[in-house]
Amino acid sequence: MSKEKLIIGTRGSKLAQIQAREVIADLKKITDKFTFELKIIKTHADKFNSTPIHKLGKKGVFVKEIDKALLGEEIDISVHSMKDLPTLIPNGITLAAIPKRKTHKDVIYSRENKSLKELKSGSIIGTGSFRRRSQALFLRKDIEIQNIRGNVDTRIKKVDNGEYDAIILAKIGVQRLNLEIKTFDLPDFILPAAGQGALAVETRSESKEILNLLGKINHQQSFFEIMAENSFIKTLGGGCQIPIGVLGRIEENNLILLAEILDIDGTKRITSKISGKPNDYLILGEKLANKMQYQGGRELLEKLKEIE
Hints:
By secondary structure, the protein is of the alpha/beta class. It has three domains: 1-100 and 198-218, Periplasmic binding protein-like II (D-Maltodextrin-Binding Protein, domain 2), CATH 3.40.190.10; 106-185, D-Maltodextrin-Binding Protein, domain 2 (3-Layer(aba) Sandwich); 220-308, Porphobilinogen deaminase, C-terminal domain (Double Stranded RNA Binding Domain, 2-Layer Sandwich), CATH 3.30.160.40. The chain is built from nine helices and 13 strands. The strands form three sheets. The chain has a five-stranded mixed sheet with strand order 2-1-3-10-4, with helices on both faces. Helix 8 packs across helix 9 (281-307). The termini are far apart.
């Protein structure tokens, strides 16, 4: 009896393919009914990989083409980095699973094997993220931030070649690529992008059998934590290119949500937190967002809109 084939859509980078294969490995542990095939899809952000992300458009630059392939039944399942997913998912698509989140941390890689604190004054740090830019400048007013694009290997080479003194990376990317480089964690109070360290697995809303299958690889704690983060971002009207950090964590059946909003130069930083029942993840995200807007967040976000 031949097995049914499910086609998994993903971006073409080495990291994206590793992520998709992680999901396939998880699925193979719970079913032998299907075979799985990877399909590489070039996204808008991949086609313009030297353009700063914030100039490509606000929403879905890493996922739109994959969504189109999913809705067009060219693929059956899509795998994304959770932090690349827009807060609004297109009609007809369901976020079916968030596997167990790995580390959410950011790290710094420098040519001289130094931490952010140890870098010499005037050092040039590369990042394509407004959040990382603001956080780095909050910690070090005497450094220079320059935009950088490209996959992880490309960015590392630019440091090694002397184009940058250091870059800021997601720790999970370094781990998944099994890179033998020395990195330094950013301080614990520096918060990640919503969903950082987690994967998003989607399928068509009508595909009941696939939805049921993917539900078996969903990690409920990670789902609650990350959907609280997304609720916070959605309520603020922000995306991955606004200097907002947010982290949900469940401790002793209590969901704690921490967040920060910064200005573009890292001179102002507003922080706050909220806690409650894990099932109230959407409400907690909304409440924290509204609370921070009254603490000065609204003014910071309005200034950022002017810059954009």
